[in-house]
Amino acid sequence: MEGTVMKCSRWNRWVRETRPWFCAGIAWGLSMASPGVASIAPAVTNTMTLKQVVDRMLVRNESIQIKQIEAEVSRKGEAAERSVYEPRFVTSVDHLDSRRQNNAQQQSSLLSIPSFSERNSTYNAGIEFLIPTGAKLNTGATLRDLRNNLQSLRTLGREYEAFVGASVSQPLLKNFGPVATGSRIRLAALISDLAFQEYRRQFMTVVGRTESAYWDLYLTQEQERLTAESIGVASAILEDNKHRAQLGQSSEIEVLKAEAGVRLREARHKEARVRRVQASGQLAILISEPSVETNVVILASDRPEPILQPLTYYESYQQAFDLNPDYIARRKQAQQEKVRLAYAKNQRLPQLDLKASYGLNGLDSTAGGAWDTVTEKGFPAWSVGMELRIPLLGGLREKSEVEAARLNQKKALLAIREVESQITSALETALLRVKLQAENITNYGAAVDFHERLLKDQRERLQMGRVDTRSVLEVEEKLFEAKLAVLDSMVQHRKGMLDLELVSGSILQTRSLDLTKTELHTRTEQAMRGEMWSQSSLERYAREVERGDYRGDASPASLPQRQWIEQLRRKPSPPSAPSRPE
Fold first, then answer.
1. DSSP summary character for residue 38
2. Higher confidence at residue 68 or residue 20?
3. Lower CB count within 10 Å: N or C terminus of the chain?
């Protein structure tokens, strides 16, 4: 009876422990059998060359597209500032209806009438614009329709006044010349140049990261392959030891050593597989193709062969100061501060403006007659004058702004010196890294050849019983490490070349990817007209984001199913079932 109770308790405990697995299995089976539910498709491998990966990154990487749009926004801002000299048409209509009593003085001058009433309409039209000297010009015409009770007393009827003329206000000190009027244009142009260099910097960074991730993927693939080969060698040694143990030519401890070597290499193989999957995921992120959505695992097919070309410090140094976006951006920032300082100095000057106007007047009982009077007789009117404004305390605000501009200019110049030092140091480090890694490839290659011959000799000696299993496995381990060192040196050599090209700024130029501002503008306009950046597609995406369904069904298998299966796979296996009690 006691044994039966113990069996029942073990059975109940096993049922409780396996119930979640049992329910999950039923739910998964029903979901797979339900119509309209996608089945879980196995991952598909996609072997890609480096060029294919870079080409896909160019089309799909969002960070580059963001910088591309930012550069276009800055270019639009520059175009907006350049429109400051655009002429503007100005028109206005005013109507005045007034009635008042006249005092004694007014009655004496207005035919002794006790009150004065008027209804006047004024029509203005003209063109105003700014010129690079800072002068504001205004030219136009004015027509006034005059109606009042004085006209009825003198039997004049309606009266029309016409005026055609122009006026100018020219600053002579403060705000004079292109230094003041064109400062915003020059600043906008420099901001546009900075945005373009930021685009280049991001472009170069993503290209470098993509190629670096590609070589990391290649390295992890080779690590997985080498660990598999190592398992094969250790397994062969294990089988030989088992066979020799059966024949009495080897001890049981040698078999256990070989088994431990196999298990160790199997664990290392699994770790290499995890690293390979992680490297593939990192590369997929850079090309905007995550495997959780596409169900595709990327594999690298290109081999990082050493680049055998002469590298000189002087050539890379010159390229860096011609192409490096960080250095160019610092120079543009220094130019910005120079423009701001010149403008701040101009604002410290007294404001002395020359103002002048000239025009022709006309008067008649009809509007047409008033214009005829202007064109035929023309009663001229002109004025000229000067206006001066001087801060009583010497311009405290302007003085502080000049001092701040001087400090910012010094800061910008120090920033240029800083980036020059960084480029110099980075170039030396990158050149040394490329050189040493190229030498390491040869050195580790010689070590691989030696350990391959040594392993072959040790395996023959193991069969003859002259060495133990541990010695053979140690030689195989050293061969494995030497092969990994060769691969790592090859990858590090290519990464060193990437660092050198990034510092010198030639990474886009050597791949024929560098663009001018005009070419980038053309490409951006084409993208805006395309389907990916079209207004309709972006609005549709915005609506999906608002609904919280911006991805939808991650074909070929739905994302929730993939996540559920992944969680199920990571859980520990259920305990084995005890015998059912009678």
1. P
2. 68
3. N
Judge if 316 and 196 occupy the same domain.
yes
* Structure-block tokens of residue 70: 């930012």
Of 218, 207, 216, 209, nearest to 303 (Cα)? Answer: 218
In a domain, 327, yes or no: yes
Q: How far apart are CA 134 and CA 439, in angstroms?
A: 65
Looking at the structure, do residues 163 and 296 belong to the same domain, yes or no? no
One domain for residues 303 and 366: no
Residue 289 burial by CB count (10 A; 0-12/13-18/19+): exposed, middle or buried? Answer: middle
The answer on 296 and 254 residing in a single domain is: yes
Antiparallel, parallel or unpaired: β 351-364 and 379-389: antiparallel
CA dist., res. 120 & res. 115, Å (int) = 16
Q: Which of 439, 511, 466, 449 is nearest to 54 (CA)?
A: 511
Burial of 396 by CB count in 10 Å (0-12 exposed, 13-18 middle, 19+ buried)? exposed
- Report yes or no on 294 lying in a domain: yes
449, 550, 138, 505: which is closest to 315 by C-alpha?
505
The span from the CA of 231 to the CA of 312, in Å, is 44
DSSP 349: S
Query: For the segment 61-99, what is each residue's pLDDT rounded down to a tens digit?
Result: 888 989 999 999 999 999 999 999 999 999 999 999 988
Number of domains in the chain: 2
Q: Given strand 159-171, what is the order of strands in its sheet?
A: 88-101, 115-130, 136-146, 159-171, 351-364, 379-389
pLDDT tier for residue 385 given thresholds of 50, 70 and 90: very high
Select from 482, 112, 438, 118 the least CA-distant residue to 305.
438
pTM of the model: 0.77
Q: Is residue 5 part of a domain?
A: no
- Asked which of 514, 529, 559 is the last residue of a domain, the reply is 514
Element (H, E) at 461: helix 396-463
In angstroms, the CA 65 to CA 61 distance is: 7
> Is the bond preceding residue 556 a cis peptide, omega within 30 degrees?
yes
Distances (CA, A) of 9 to 12, 16, 53, 573: 5, 11, 59, 21
Q: What is the pLDDT of residue 150?
A: 78
- 311 pLDDT higher than 60: yes
Quote the CA–CA distance of 292 and 280 in Å, as a whole number: 12
Exposed, middle or buried: residue 215 (CB in 10 Å: 0-12, 13-18, 19+)?
buried
Q: What is the pLDDT of residue 200?
A: 95
In degrees and rounded to multiples of 5, residue 112 shows phi and psi of 60, 25
Domain containing 507 equals 49-75+186-332+444-514
Rg (CA), the chain: 42
Give the pLDDT confidence of 391-418 residue by residue, as tens digits.
998 899 999 999 999 999 999 999 999 9
Residue 222: CB atoms within 10 A of its CB come to: 22
131 plus 200 within the same structural domain? no
Lowest mean pLDDT among 102-111, 335-344, 376-385, 415-424: 102-111
Tokens coding 17: 């422990």
Across 182-191, 367-376, 545-554, least confident range: 545-554
